[in-house]
Amino acid sequence: MSRSITAARESRRVVRGLFPTVALAALLAVTGCGAGAGAEGGRPAGAGGGAARTVTVFAAASLTESFTRLGADFEAANPGVDVRFNFGSSATLAQQIVQGAPADVFAAASPATMKTVADASLAANPVVFARNRLEIALPAGNPAKIDDLADLAGPGVKVALCAPQVPCGAAAAKALAAAGLKIVPVTLEQDVKATLTKVTLGEVDAALVYRTDVLAAVGKVQGLPFPEAAQAVNDYPIAALAKAPSGDLAGRFVALVTSPQGRVVLTGAGFETP
Amino acid sequence: MPWALTVPAVAGLVFLVLPLAGLLVRAPWSTMGERLAEPLVLEALRLSLVTATVATAVCLLFGVPLAWLLARGNLPGRRLVRALVTVPLVLPPVVGGVALLLVLGRNGLAGRWLYETFGVSLPFTTAGVVVAEAFVAMPFLVISVEGALKGADQRFEEAAATLGASRWRVFTRVTLPMVAPGVSAGAVLCWARALGEFGATITFAGNFPGQTQTMPLAVYLALETDPEAAIVLSLVLLAVSVLVLASLRERWAGTS
Questions:
Q1: CATH number at residue B130
Q2: How far apart are CA B126 and CA A153, in angstroms?
Q3: Which of B109, B207, B233 to mutate to test binding with chain A, by most A CBs within 10 Å of its CB?
Q4: In this complex, do B224 and A16 lie within 8 Å of one another by their Cβ atoms?
Q5: Chain B nearest-CA residue for A167
Q6: To 10 degrees, what angle do helices B78-90 and B126-151 make?
Q7: Based on the structure, what is the number of domains in chain B?
Q8: How many beta-carbon pairs under 8 angstroms link A with B?
Q9: B221–A165 CB contact, under 8 Å
Q10: pLDDT tens per residue across span A86-101
Q11: What is the mean pLDDT of residues B121-138?
Q12: What is the mean pLDDT of the segment spanning B7-27?
């Protein structure tokens, strides 16, 4: 018994001796990550004491495939540079940038979401680099036998749309209005990839997503173009951000996206380019 | 009070309370009234309260027996079962939603059979919301009740059994009253977790106003266009949950 008391005292002394060290280490860790971490865009210092440079690109979810390829091209052309992506809903990304996330480039799926950032005087001269149009995405085999847009209004047809707050949802509302159709979706998803997932899993009979998303999910979904999509073509603006931590790289990345090389990648993914 | 405890305790408290204070500071108090009266808000709040409550009832129905099995049953591989029960706690919510779709969706393992036999399909329905919430929240209840059962003195149960009470009677008349504080504390935690559920809900049940758009989903989408509205919605959710939790703890949980 007495031995355990001594041991307890002993360990308490050790802990007490250690405490300041631990506290200091914790404090350093906190301030360290406080300096580096932003909302999903934190940039830990590059290995090798800052030799590696990063450029952080916030891009709409629908750009995932094409920008990932362009990012690899950019890294190949600029040795020692690391491209980091934050893909998501344009509106969410715009909010993150306005709240001070350390981004260098913003590529949005709609002029409206770019305007959010421009209004906070954070985006200088956005340029439209791509256009995207909607298509009807159907699960492989088209179980509900959808032949055109009007079929989506049929009884018992389950349709997923993007929420009207996000660019693909705004475009869908426009296209449906142009067609004079009223459909009641079963769900309004938060971004276009989530909408596509519902089709890929066969949980809905159809969804309105971008042509590029249908191409990206080739084999899992089939696409059905419809004429009213022309009434709701989405412009994609890109801009180097005013407070970009790596300003020169940001400009170069935008230049790559708008170059002929960038156009080849984008059209290959199903975008139209201006 | 040793300072080695006080300092980190205060730091921890500040860390937990400060973000909440941030919400209060940034809230658009002047337009609060009209924003709250919007039908979309009231609908989402009603749906949240109803689904969280039903999900808690479902969790009690299945979770209490499960906790009893873990604490009192002589299960082979009990540790593995306990680990499996706690999986939804650590599973990223969206993954939980996808997992539910793969099992209960229209093309899911069990969902396909449900759909073809009964024409029932859970995704995109209010029942689907309850399923998603129960899936994520049930572990809280099970762990809480199991802990209470382990801490309870089994001699009372043995005494009742020797006096001729059936096992069911022992459970309802002796065991349950003894662990009641643990059950209600677990139910409160479970309800709170269900109320805040986002990822599994939007993935499994989708997002449609009045049917599956609970408060957290409404907050997330409001953030897309109108951050102020999102703050208002968050505050409503917080106020309601704090009120409910505080009153419940007073009423039931006593000192647990």
A1: 1.10.3720.10
A2: 22
A3: B207
A4: no
A5: B224
A6: 130
A7: 1
A8: 67
A9: yes
A10: 998 888 899 899 988 8
A11: 95
A12: 92
**pTM for the full predicted model:** 0.79
Residues of A in contact with B227 (CB under 8 A): 95
Which of the 8 DSSP states describes residue B48?
Answer: H
Residue B225 lies in a domain: yes
B19 within domain boundaries: no
Q: In chain B, whose CA is at the least distance from the CA of A196?
A: B203
Residue B211: which of B43, B58, B57, B93 has the closest Cα?
B43
- DSSP track, A41-96: T--PPPTTTTTSEEEEEEEEGGGHHHHHHHHHHHHHHSTTEEEEEEEE-HHHHHHH
Strands A81-88 and A53-60: parallel
> Three-state SS for B207?
coil
Report yes or no on B32 lying in a domain. Answer: no
Q: Which residues of A touch B105 (CB under 8 A)?
A: 201-203
Residue A29 corresponds to which tokens in the numbers above? 């860790």
d(CA B143, CA A204): 36
Span between the terminal Cα atoms of chain A, in Å: 83
pLDDT of residue A50 exceeding 80, the answer is: no
Given a cut of 70, is residue A155 above it in pLDDT? yes
Amino acid A25: pLDDT = 42
The single residue listed with the structure tokens 């179980």 is A143
What pLDDT sits at residue B250? 64
